[in-house]
Design brief:
It is built from 15 helices and no strands. It has 405 residues and is mostly helical.
């Protein structure tokens, strides 16, 4: 099929998928922390900040499971089929979320966000399509543009929430559901079906899930190292993503619209950086990723230790090194571990990110009861450790080569 059409379709679908995942972030902090009692923040009489932490965690739990199984499943059962089913299902999840917001039902909200996250774990399928079907230098650029589309969703989703919440909290989710249905139609038209692998034709889907999920890759030592280092970095990212809205509420008294504007600035810079992050480089991928991680960690620590304006600067500037880190690490991993199946490798990276979101949501639910800045400081320090670990890993791998020459 036409490579440019494939890239355009996947970038559009990546944008629409992330819009739905990011919608609640500027909405939830004011709903749970502005002091007004509602059905969502008074569930069982629990502290609103604890309920917020659980609400932030539940979607990544679904993403964790979906990311672990959807990529490997698509290796055998077809990328197109996986994208169609998951995109249509996520649209249904957004409709259920809208109903939960109208009813102010905390339990239905959790169930809907979990179901949506489960099906939005299809980013690994999109990245695998790019890696398999785009050849030459265009592949790295296409992967970077796809990452940029995911990043742009983190701009559009919160912006949509901030601008439309005045018309009711359900409206943004109705819009997201309709957009995803359009995305499913685009997949149907532009991505050809792929044949099922012969050895999988007689297997049940749950057999494939059990035997081929992404975490089976951890049997291999280098992939375990990748898991540990990338998890530490992603914990820093998750700390910022999940808790800078609450930090803005605590430190600056910001409302949903103001939070959306700050998020828009961060994601705009992240998206612009992603347009250029796929350039060729002679510097080894892990080494580049390590330096980008150091810059991202510095930005997160500026939020944790700084005042309102230094923190906002850190939030905005974080987007650029994060975009370059993603492309550097993903392209290196795709080349280094290609024999394990691109769907599985990309699924492992997505699974790590989801696990980090869960861990930081749990940690934040406790740490924010003391001070919101604590979770940001912990996340920044973890990302800084990942930076050092990546550069040391790169140096250890290069040393035998240098000694042999």
């Amino acid at each position: 099929m036409n490579e440019r059409l494939l890239i355009a379709t996947l970038c559009g679908l990546g944008l629409l998928s992330t819009v739905g995942a990011s919608l609640p972030y500027p909405m939830l902090a004011p709903l749970f922390a502005d002091g007004n009692v509602n059905g969502l923040n008074s569930f069982l009489g629990l502290p609103p900040k604890l309920l917020l932490g659980i609400a932030l965690m539940i979607n990544p739990v679904g993403l964790l499971i979906g990311s672990a199984i959807l990529g490997p499943m698509s290796d055998g059962f077809g990328r197109r089929r996986a994208l169609l089913l998951t995109t249509a299902g996520a649209a249904l999840g957004h409709l259920l979320t809208a109903v939960a917001m109208v009813m102010e039902s905390y339990l239905l909200f959790l169930a809907a966000r979990f179901f949506t996250g489960l099906l939005e774990g299809n980013g690994a399928v999109m990245r695998a399509l790019v890696i398999e079907r785009i050849k030459g230098p265009l592949r790295n650029h296409a992967l970077s543009w796809l990452n940029g589309s995911f990043n742009l969703g983190w701009l559009v989703g919160p912006l949509l929430a901030g601008l439309t919440m005045a018309f009711g909290p359900a409206l943004p989710f109705y819009i997201a559901a309709g957009a995803l249905l359009l995305g499913a139609a685009g997949v149907l038209v532009s991505i050809p079906a792929t044949p099922i692998q012969a050895h999988l034709q007689r297997q049940r889907w749950w057999t494939v899930v059990r035997e081929r999920h992404a975490l089976t890759l951890l049997r291999h030592g280098p992939l375990r190292t990748l898991f540990t280092v990338h998890l530490a970095y992603c914990c820093g990212v998750a700390a910022l993503y999940e808790f800078f809205p609450l930090w803005l509420v605590d430190v600056g008294g910001y409302d949903a619209r103001q939070i959306a504007i700050v998020n828009m600035g961060m994601c705009a810079l992240m998206t612009m950086a992603a347009l250029f992050a796929g350039h060729a480089s002679r510097v080894e991928g892990r080494l580049r990723a390590g330096w980008y991680a150091a810059m991202a960690a510095t930005a997160v620590l500026c939020v944790g230790f700084g005042n309102l304006w230094i923190g906002i600067a850190g939030i905005l500037l974080f987007g650029a090194p994060h975009a370059f880190y993603n492309t550097a690490l993903q392209t290196w991993a795709a080349d280094e571990f290609a024999l394990h199946g691109q769907g599985s490798v990309m699924a492992l990276l997505s699974t790590i990110f989801c696990l980090a979101n869960i861990l930081m949501a749990l940690a934040g639910a406790v740490l924010t009861l003391i001070d919101t800045r604590l979770v940001l400081v912990v996340g920044g320090l973890l990302a800084l450790w990942a930076s050092v670990a990546l550069r040391r890993w790169s140096a250890r791998s290069a040393r035998p080569h240098l000694e042999s020459t």
